[in-house]
Design a protein that fits this description.
globular; about 200 residues; mainly alpha
Length: about 200
């Protein structure tokens, strides 16, 4: 073997092992998000058909889907936001099934999933702010979407950082404390909700 061949072998990137836990997260989280998005879509259609329709997720002044659905924020791109979830979560479920089948996804698909998960996470954060501090109501089904989007973004990001930046101390720290960081994020969100509506 020549020196050139040895160097090439040393630089060869070994594909990461199949991320089984992440595959289940994509499948189950995607299914939950799809169900919530589908329900919200139906509620929005019924509201358009019947002006006096009261959504099933209207529980109180605070937990009130109707207050959310009637705002411009609920149709940011000119159509109901849940339609985005119908498309996005269907893709997430598909990728979860593919991973569980034993297939290895090429890195360009992981990159595309990263872009999609990041945009979804940013959109969810914006909707959280609007719900808490502008609209002043919470949509229970929207909160279900929040609850699955955040961990999907988090663990897709951790997988990609571990593959694209192996050996990074920052990545090692994030992976070692992944559960605590995610828990703190949800605790922080719950704290904001508490002080906004119940304190």
């Amino acid at each position: 073997m020549t020196t050139l061949e040895t160097s090439a072998d040393e630089r060869e990137v070994v594909p990461p092992a199949r991320p089984l836990a992440l595959a289940w997260l994509l499948l189950v989280g995607g299914a939950i998000g799809l169900a919530a998005s589908f329900t919200l879509s139906l509620e929005k259609i019924r509201l358009l058909e019947q002006k006096d329709y009261v959504p099933s997720c209207n529980f109180s002044v605070i937990f009130n889907c109707l207050n959310i659905m009637k705002t411009d924020q609920a149709s940011l791109f000119g159509f109901p936001n849940p339609f985005i979830g119908l498309m996005g979560f269907a893709v997430v479920i598909t990728l979860g099934v593919v991973l569980l089948s034993g297939a290895r996804l090429p890195e360009w698909i992981w990159a595309g999933l990263q872009v999609g998960a990041t945009l979804a996470f940013a959109f969810v954060c914006w909707l959280q702010y609007e719900s808490l501090y502008v609209i002043g109501s919470l949509c229970p089904w929207c909160m279900v979407v929040w609850a699955v989007t955040i961990p999907i973004f988090w663990y897709v990001t951790l997988r990609n950082l571990g593959t694209w930046a192996p050996g990074s101390r920052v990545v090692s720290f994030l992976r070692d404390w992944h559960a605590l960081i995610l828990a703190l994020w949800f605790i922080g969100l719950a704290t904001l909700i508490f002080f906004r509506f119940f304190a």
